[in-house]
Design a protein that fits this description.
Helices cover about 15% and strands about 40% of the residues. By secondary structure, the protein is α+β, with helices and mostly antiparallel strands.
Length: about 300
Protein backbone atom coordinates (compact mmCIF):
# COMPACT_ATOMS: atom_id res chain seq x y z
CA UNK A 1 0.00 0.00 0.00
CA UNK A 2 1.38 3.40 -0.94
CA UNK A 3 2.11 5.81 1.95
CA UNK A 4 -0.33 8.43 0.61
CA UNK A 5 -3.11 5.83 0.41
CA UNK A 6 -2.35 4.61 3.93
CA UNK A 7 -2.41 8.19 5.31
CA UNK A 8 -5.70 8.88 3.58
CA UNK A 9 -7.29 5.78 5.09
CA UNK A 10 -5.89 6.64 8.52
CA UNK A 11 -7.36 10.16 8.35
CA UNK A 12 -10.73 8.77 7.32
CA UNK A 13 -10.61 6.32 10.24
CA UNK A 14 -9.78 9.08 12.73
CA UNK A 15 -12.59 11.24 11.36
CA UNK A 16 -15.07 8.39 11.63
CA UNK A 17 -14.05 7.71 15.23
CA UNK A 18 -14.52 11.37 16.20
CA UNK A 19 -17.72 11.70 14.19
CA UNK A 20 -19.28 8.95 16.28
CA UNK A 21 -19.23 11.24 19.31
CA UNK A 22 -21.26 13.77 17.31
CA UNK A 23 -23.62 11.22 15.70
CA UNK A 24 -27.05 12.54 14.86
CA UNK A 25 -30.11 11.24 16.63
CA UNK A 26 -33.37 11.39 14.71
CA UNK A 27 -36.66 12.14 16.42
CA UNK A 28 -40.17 12.25 14.94
CA UNK A 29 -41.06 15.86 15.84
CA UNK A 30 -39.70 19.05 17.40
CA UNK A 31 -41.40 18.11 20.67
CA UNK A 32 -38.99 15.17 21.05
CA UNK A 33 -35.80 17.20 20.52
CA UNK A 34 -34.96 18.11 24.12
CA UNK A 35 -35.18 14.52 25.37
CA UNK A 36 -32.83 13.38 22.60
CA UNK A 37 -29.82 15.29 24.00
CA UNK A 38 -27.52 12.96 25.95
CA UNK A 39 -26.06 15.48 28.40
CA UNK A 40 -27.63 17.85 30.90
CA UNK A 41 -25.41 20.65 29.58
CA UNK A 42 -26.90 20.26 26.10
CA UNK A 43 -30.45 20.27 27.47
CA UNK A 44 -29.74 23.48 29.38
CA UNK A 45 -28.27 25.07 26.25
CA UNK A 46 -31.37 24.08 24.31
CA UNK A 47 -33.62 25.63 26.95
CA UNK A 48 -31.63 28.86 26.89
CA UNK A 49 -31.56 29.02 23.10
CA UNK A 50 -35.27 28.30 22.78
CA UNK A 51 -36.42 31.07 25.12
CA UNK A 52 -35.26 34.22 26.90
CA UNK A 53 -32.67 33.49 29.64
CA UNK A 54 -34.29 32.48 32.88
CA UNK A 55 -33.78 34.21 36.19
CA UNK A 56 -31.20 31.79 37.56
CA UNK A 57 -28.94 33.48 40.14
CA UNK A 58 -25.85 33.20 37.91
CA UNK A 59 -27.57 34.79 34.92
CA UNK A 60 -26.50 38.33 34.06
CA UNK A 61 -28.87 41.10 35.07
CA UNK A 62 -30.86 39.34 37.80
CA UNK A 63 -32.07 41.56 40.71
CA UNK A 64 -29.24 43.26 42.57
CA UNK A 65 -28.51 42.74 46.29
CA UNK A 66 -29.74 45.70 48.34
CA UNK A 67 -26.22 47.07 48.90
CA UNK A 68 -25.60 47.56 45.15
CA UNK A 69 -27.20 49.81 42.55
CA UNK A 70 -26.89 50.04 38.78
CA UNK A 71 -25.44 53.53 38.54
CA UNK A 72 -22.76 52.84 41.15
CA UNK A 73 -21.76 49.63 39.37
CA UNK A 74 -21.45 51.49 36.08
CA UNK A 75 -19.28 54.20 37.63
CA UNK A 76 -16.96 51.68 39.27
CA UNK A 77 -16.71 49.01 36.56
CA UNK A 78 -16.96 51.15 33.42
CA UNK A 79 -15.92 54.60 34.52
CA UNK A 80 -16.61 57.27 31.93
CA UNK A 81 -19.16 55.26 29.96
CA UNK A 82 -22.50 57.02 29.32
CA UNK A 83 -25.32 56.14 31.72
CA UNK A 84 -27.83 55.96 28.88
CA UNK A 85 -25.98 52.97 27.38
CA UNK A 86 -26.38 50.80 30.49
CA UNK A 87 -28.61 47.83 29.60
CA UNK A 88 -28.21 45.47 32.57
CA UNK A 89 -26.11 45.03 35.71
CA UNK A 90 -25.61 42.06 37.98
CA UNK A 91 -23.96 41.01 41.24
CA UNK A 92 -23.53 37.45 42.54
CA UNK A 93 -21.91 36.04 45.67
CA UNK A 94 -18.73 34.20 44.70
CA UNK A 95 -19.03 30.67 46.06
CA UNK A 96 -15.23 30.17 46.15
CA UNK A 97 -14.79 33.42 48.14
CA UNK A 98 -17.82 33.90 50.45
CA UNK A 99 -16.67 37.42 51.37
CA UNK A 100 -16.56 38.49 47.72
CA UNK A 101 -19.07 39.23 44.95
CA UNK A 102 -18.78 38.96 41.17
CA UNK A 103 -20.22 41.92 39.28
CA UNK A 104 -20.95 42.89 35.69
CA UNK A 105 -22.44 45.68 33.63
CA UNK A 106 -23.67 45.29 30.07
CA UNK A 107 -23.58 48.31 27.74
CA UNK A 108 -25.52 48.64 24.50
CA UNK A 109 -24.09 50.36 21.41
CA UNK A 110 -26.98 52.86 21.31
CA UNK A 111 -29.19 54.56 23.90
CA UNK A 112 -32.43 53.38 22.28
CA UNK A 113 -31.22 49.77 22.43
CA UNK A 114 -30.37 50.09 26.12
CA UNK A 115 -33.75 51.64 26.90
CA UNK A 116 -35.62 48.91 25.06
CA UNK A 117 -33.47 46.29 26.77
CA UNK A 118 -34.20 47.66 30.23
CA UNK A 119 -37.92 47.81 29.53
CA UNK A 120 -38.48 44.35 28.07
CA UNK A 121 -35.56 41.94 28.62
CA UNK A 122 -34.71 42.44 32.31
CA UNK A 123 -31.74 40.05 32.29
CA UNK A 124 -29.08 38.73 29.94
CA UNK A 125 -26.75 40.65 27.64
CA UNK A 126 -27.92 39.81 24.13
CA UNK A 127 -27.14 41.82 20.99
CA UNK A 128 -29.84 42.91 18.55
CA UNK A 129 -27.89 41.23 15.75
CA UNK A 130 -24.52 39.60 15.10
CA UNK A 131 -23.16 42.63 13.28
CA UNK A 132 -20.22 44.45 14.85
CA UNK A 133 -22.21 47.68 15.21
CA UNK A 134 -24.76 45.87 17.42
CA UNK A 135 -22.45 43.99 19.78
CA UNK A 136 -22.92 44.46 23.52
CA UNK A 137 -20.02 45.42 25.82
CA UNK A 138 -19.34 43.44 28.99
CA UNK A 139 -17.40 44.89 31.92
CA UNK A 140 -16.48 42.77 34.95
CA UNK A 141 -15.48 43.37 38.56
CA UNK A 142 -14.92 41.73 41.94
CA UNK A 143 -16.11 43.33 45.20
CA UNK A 144 -15.21 42.56 48.80
CA UNK A 145 -18.09 42.81 51.26
CA UNK A 146 -17.55 42.57 55.02
CA UNK A 147 -20.55 42.30 57.38
CA UNK A 148 -21.90 45.75 58.15
CA UNK A 149 -19.55 47.48 55.71
CA UNK A 150 -20.05 48.87 52.21
CA UNK A 151 -18.78 46.88 49.20
CA UNK A 152 -15.21 47.63 48.14
CA UNK A 153 -14.06 47.16 44.55
CA UNK A 154 -11.08 44.79 44.53
CA UNK A 155 -10.46 44.23 40.81
CA UNK A 156 -12.07 45.05 37.47
CA UNK A 157 -11.51 44.41 33.78
CA UNK A 158 -10.52 48.09 33.07
CA UNK A 159 -12.02 47.73 29.57
CA UNK A 160 -14.81 45.87 27.82
CA UNK A 161 -14.05 42.18 27.39
CA UNK A 162 -12.61 41.77 23.90
CA UNK A 163 -10.49 38.61 23.93
CA UNK A 164 -11.30 36.45 20.87
CA UNK A 165 -12.25 32.79 21.30
CA UNK A 166 -9.77 30.49 19.59
CA UNK A 167 -11.16 27.50 17.69
CA UNK A 168 -7.67 26.13 16.95
CA UNK A 169 -7.43 22.34 17.45
CA UNK A 170 -10.93 22.19 18.91
CA UNK A 171 -13.38 19.30 18.69
CA UNK A 172 -16.31 21.74 18.60
CA UNK A 173 -17.72 22.24 15.06
CA UNK A 174 -16.86 25.63 13.61
CA UNK A 175 -19.50 28.36 13.23
CA UNK A 176 -19.68 30.18 9.91
CA UNK A 177 -18.76 33.47 11.58
CA UNK A 178 -15.16 32.54 12.42
CA UNK A 179 -12.47 35.01 11.45
CA UNK A 180 -9.82 33.04 9.57
CA UNK A 181 -7.45 35.92 8.84
CA UNK A 182 -4.96 34.74 11.49
CA UNK A 183 -2.94 31.85 10.04
CA UNK A 184 -4.03 28.50 11.48
CA UNK A 185 -5.95 30.24 14.29
CA UNK A 186 -9.64 30.63 13.48
CA UNK A 187 -11.27 32.82 16.11
CA UNK A 188 -14.69 34.17 17.04
CA UNK A 189 -14.20 37.89 17.65
CA UNK A 190 -17.19 38.40 19.95
CA UNK A 191 -20.26 36.45 21.14
CA UNK A 192 -23.80 37.52 20.37
CA UNK A 193 -24.84 36.81 23.97
CA UNK A 194 -23.00 37.18 27.28
CA UNK A 195 -24.87 34.64 29.39
CA UNK A 196 -23.81 34.04 32.96
CA UNK A 197 -21.15 33.49 35.57
CA UNK A 198 -19.84 29.91 35.68
CA UNK A 199 -19.59 29.00 39.37
CA UNK A 200 -17.44 25.88 38.99
CA UNK A 201 -14.28 26.07 41.13
CA UNK A 202 -11.26 26.76 38.92
CA UNK A 203 -8.20 27.21 41.18
CA UNK A 204 -5.54 28.03 38.60
CA UNK A 205 -2.83 29.14 41.05
CA UNK A 206 -2.81 26.44 43.74
CA UNK A 207 -1.80 27.78 47.13
CA UNK A 208 -2.94 31.32 46.31
CA UNK A 209 -6.34 31.41 48.00
CA UNK A 210 -6.54 35.21 47.63
CA UNK A 211 -6.15 35.67 43.87
CA UNK A 212 -5.68 32.13 42.58
CA UNK A 213 -9.32 31.46 41.69
CA UNK A 214 -10.50 32.17 38.16
CA UNK A 215 -13.58 34.25 37.43
CA UNK A 216 -15.49 32.25 34.82
CA UNK A 217 -18.00 33.60 32.29
CA UNK A 218 -20.12 31.76 29.73
CA UNK A 219 -21.16 33.28 26.42
CA UNK A 220 -22.90 31.94 23.33
CA UNK A 221 -23.27 32.30 19.56
CA UNK A 222 -26.36 31.27 17.58
CA UNK A 223 -26.62 30.32 13.94
CA UNK A 224 -29.88 29.88 12.08
CA UNK A 225 -30.46 28.33 8.70
CA UNK A 226 -33.32 26.85 6.73
CA UNK A 227 -34.83 24.00 8.71
CA UNK A 228 -32.77 24.33 11.87
CA UNK A 229 -30.20 26.08 13.99
CA UNK A 230 -27.09 25.67 16.11
CA UNK A 231 -25.91 27.11 19.40
CA UNK A 232 -22.27 27.37 20.49
CA UNK A 233 -21.18 28.02 24.08
CA UNK A 234 -17.81 29.49 25.05
CA UNK A 235 -15.92 29.70 28.36
CA UNK A 236 -13.84 32.74 29.38
CA UNK A 237 -11.53 32.62 32.41
CA UNK A 238 -10.15 35.74 34.11
CA UNK A 239 -7.55 36.06 36.87
CA UNK A 240 -7.06 38.82 39.39
CA UNK A 241 -3.71 40.49 38.85
CA UNK A 242 -3.61 43.12 41.56
CA UNK A 243 -6.54 45.45 40.83
CA UNK A 244 -6.98 44.19 37.28
CA UNK A 245 -9.06 41.30 35.95
CA UNK A 246 -7.31 39.95 32.88
CA UNK A 247 -8.37 37.16 30.51
CA UNK A 248 -6.28 33.97 30.53
CA UNK A 249 -8.46 31.50 28.60
CA UNK A 250 -11.19 31.69 25.94
CA UNK A 251 -12.29 28.52 24.17
CA UNK A 252 -15.43 26.85 22.79
CA UNK A 253 -17.01 24.41 25.23
CA UNK A 254 -20.21 23.03 23.74
CA UNK A 255 -22.34 22.79 20.62
CA UNK A 256 -25.91 21.70 19.88
CA UNK A 257 -27.67 21.51 16.55
CA UNK A 258 -31.17 20.65 15.36
CA UNK A 259 -32.28 20.43 11.75
CA UNK A 260 -35.17 19.10 9.73
CA UNK A 261 -34.66 15.94 7.69
CA UNK A 262 -36.85 14.70 4.90
CA UNK A 263 -40.17 16.20 3.91
CA UNK A 264 -42.02 15.57 7.17
CA UNK A 265 -41.62 16.76 10.76
CA UNK A 266 -38.63 14.54 11.56
CA UNK A 267 -35.68 16.30 13.22
CA UNK A 268 -31.97 15.44 13.55
CA UNK A 269 -30.21 16.31 16.81
CA UNK A 270 -26.44 16.47 17.49
CA UNK A 271 -24.26 17.72 20.34
CA UNK A 272 -20.68 18.02 21.57
CA UNK A 273 -20.00 18.99 25.20
CA UNK A 274 -16.63 19.46 26.89
CA UNK A 275 -15.61 19.53 30.55
CA UNK A 276 -12.74 21.55 32.03
CA UNK A 277 -10.55 19.98 34.73
CA UNK A 278 -7.71 21.59 36.68
CA UNK A 279 -4.73 19.20 36.68
CA UNK A 280 -2.03 18.73 39.36
CA UNK A 281 0.79 19.50 36.90
CA UNK A 282 1.97 23.13 36.85
CA UNK A 283 4.01 25.62 34.87
CA UNK A 284 5.25 28.94 36.29
CA UNK A 285 2.83 28.69 39.21
CA UNK A 286 -0.26 28.01 37.08
CA UNK A 287 -1.97 24.63 37.01
CA UNK A 288 -2.41 22.85 33.69
CA UNK A 289 -6.01 22.54 32.56
CA UNK A 290 -7.64 19.88 30.42
CA UNK A 291 -10.62 20.01 28.11
CA UNK A 292 -12.20 16.58 27.70
CA UNK A 293 -15.24 15.62 25.67
CA UNK A 294 -18.08 14.24 27.73
CA UNK A 295 -19.08 10.79 26.45
CA UNK A 296 -16.22 10.94 23.97
CA UNK A 297 -12.47 10.33 23.59
CA UNK A 298 -11.19 13.77 22.56
CA UNK A 299 -9.09 15.71 25.08
CA UNK A 300 -6.54 18.49 25.09
CA UNK A 301 -4.24 19.90 27.79
CA UNK A 302 -3.54 23.65 27.99
CA UNK A 303 -0.45 25.03 29.70
CA UNK A 304 0.32 28.50 30.97
CA UNK A 305 2.38 30.71 28.67
CA UNK A 306 4.35 33.46 30.37
CA UNK A 307 4.92 34.96 26.91
CA UNK A 308 1.26 35.52 26.01
CA UNK A 309 -0.18 35.58 29.55
CA UNK A 310 -2.76 33.04 28.39
CA UNK A 311 -3.29 29.29 28.43
CA UNK A 312 -2.07 27.84 25.13
Amino acid sequence: MRLSSFCSQLILLMLSIHASTQAQIRVPTQDHVRAAFRTEEARIMYDRAAMAPGAEPQDFGTPLPVTYDRDSLLQQLASGQPTELLATAGVLRWSQRPDMYLAMVCLAPRAETAERYRMFVMHGCDADSQEVQDKMSLWLGVFSKRPGASPVLVARSHEAVSVPVSWANSNIPQPRALDRSAAHKPVLRWPDSWRRFDLQPYLLRPGDTEQGWAVAVRASWDEEYKGGGANFEMLYLFMMDGARLRPVFARPMAFIKTESVGAGSERAVSETVNMLTVLPEMRDGYADIELRERNGTWKRVFKWSSVTGMYE
